[in-house]
Amino acid sequence: MKRFSVLLSLLVVLSIFLTACSGGKEKDGKASSTNETAGSTNEKATITVAAWNAAADALTEQIAGFNQKYPNIKVEILRADTGYTKVTPALAAGTGAPDVIQTQARDFQAFLQKFPDQFVDITDKTQKYKNDFVESSWKSVTKDNKVYALPWDLGPTALYYRIDLFEKAGIDVKSIQTWDEYIEAGKKLKEAIPGTAMTLYTDDFNLYEIFLNQMGGSYVKDGKINVNSPESKKALLLQKKMKDEGIAINVHDGNGRIPALTNDKVASVILPVWYAGTLSHSVEKQAGKWGIVPIPAFEKGGNTQANLGGSILAVSKQSKNADAAFKFIEYVLTTDEGQKIMLQYGLFPSYTPFYKSEVFNTEDKYFGMELYPFFAKLTTTIKGMEYGPIMLDATKPLKDMIDGVLTGNDVDKTMETTAESISKSTKLDVNK
Known about the structure:
The chain is an alpha/beta fold. 41% of the residues lie in helices and 15% in strands. The chain folds into 2 domains: 45-154 and 308-376, 3-Layer(aba) Sandwich (D-Maltodextrin-Binding Protein, domain 2), CATH 3.40.190; 156-307 and 383-426, D-Maltodextrin-Binding Protein, domain 2. Helix 15 (391-406) packs antiparallel against helix 16 (411-426). The longest helix has 21 residues, at 2-22.
């Protein structure tokens, strides 16, 4: 009996030893890997994440929650810029790149073209999320049916309007179904309230891109430059008509909008969801005076949805801790905890399961409505925009094109000149 007890003890010790060596069992009964990569809860790793402005602030705030789940992964935020000056030299050199890189959604295809083999193929990791993001958001992160980044935020666009100014001018916002009707309402407002314009425009191409996307147009089509398309022409001519009819005033930059709004110089703005936060923080005294409706269509019954903006997060192939890097992306973009913080910084999620959360469905006191559910309904018919690999080279030519048309240059000739200019710098042919 004594010999049996000794033998039994030895067997117990051996069993414990073998269990420890094998890594044990997970709660679901599956054996955990004995080759945990850096970035697991068992291995220490440090990752660097490059992002800018509010996005960088949001990611910084995410670290505490992420470390509760992954205490051994240290996250450092590198404050970059929208010109990518801290990222592109390292990608070009093949060394020194951050582990995680933010780009604007419209720029990422250009990154994939300019820096081939510099981003990790995460197709397998993202398959389970295929139906969890707004469908159009996958277009910018996919190339040759492979996924190289996760969509982050997007910018469903709406018409913000001053309820009191519209009432004073005798304008029923519900009667504005098309852009032509919007322009006519703008004329009425201008007559009723001298010194107040219907809307504004800046020297960037926000309005152009909104109109282009609304019609299903693209910068690139079938691998060729497409800025000379019928949709592009309609977008340019609508912008010009707004100016020529005197319903839109020029503002030279985004900062100029606030004084115009504060002084009642503008009765409405055509911008994405993120502008709601700007209004509530920059013109606080106008709380309750702003309403929001879908943008008008180009024709009766036409599409009233468009996207402007949005970013992505990608893992650099230079990363020595790619698994840890993806875990961070996964946490900030596919969990309620991560998306709650994003929403606090005005970053509207393309991750749709979060739309069911309590915080997403909270009433906004400034506008007196459930703000985010309203914008969520404006994501269902957004057209996928084909940016192609041109946007890092096309920004200035596009701005010049818009400015040229607004100042009276022939629209067809201006589009052709712009297309040829972008073609020279990108080596892509032009659609004829």
